[in-house]
Amino acid sequence: MNIKTILLTLLITATLSLQASEKFEYKKVEYPVYAISQDFMPTKFSNPIYPAKARKEKRGGKVVIGAVVNEKGKVTDAFIKESEVEADLEQACLTSIRRSRFPVASKHSREAPYIIFIPMTLEP
């Protein structure tokens, strides 16, 4: 799956109707939440490295990753919000998101750090 397909999948599956005014508590800190949108697409996206065993077993599914993004657009933490995949695929997604970059919040007059939820569909 190439980056354009993944980004398109992100846009299509971004059905989370989170408003910018919503807050999400993570590790006892409240963060503003922004949904994937034209303003908040990754500026650098690292494709997940599909585990060989998962590919061989033709395992896939959907996962929603939460990413804490600092004022420079760097992911400082990532976590699983929802998942229907096994741990090895979750880890591949987490690693991918941790290596990704997101827009600088101040560029869009938004607060930082912020959380963004990234829905991902994995297909072997």
Number of strands: 5
Q: What's the overall geometry?
A: elongated
Structural class category: alpha+beta
Strand order of the largest sheet: 1-2-5-3-4
Order of helices and strands: HEEHEEHE
Give the proportion of residues in helices.
10-25%
Contiguous uncertain segments of 5+ residues: 11-20
Mean pLDDT: 82
Helices, by number, come to: 3
Q: Which range does the strand content fall in?
A: 25-35%
Round the Cα radius of gyration to an integer and report it.
14 Å
Termini separation (Å)?
9 Å
Keywords for this entry:
124 residues, alpha+beta, 5-stranded mixed sheet, 5 strands, 31% strand
Structure description:
The chain has 124 residues and is an alpha+beta fold. It is built from three helices and five strands, in the order αββαββαβ. It has helices spanning 3-13, 52-56, 87-98, and strands at residues 23-26, 29-35, 61-69, 75-83, 114-122. The chain is elongated and about 45 Å long. The N and C termini lie close together (9 Å).
Short structural summary:
The chain is 23% helix and 31% strand. It has 124 residues and is an alpha+beta fold.
Topology of helices and strands:
Layout: H1 3-13, E1 23-26, E2 29-35, H2 52-56, E3 61-69, E4 75-83, H3 87-98, E5 114-122
Parallel strand pairs: 2-5
Antiparallel strand pairs: 1-2, 3-4, 3-5
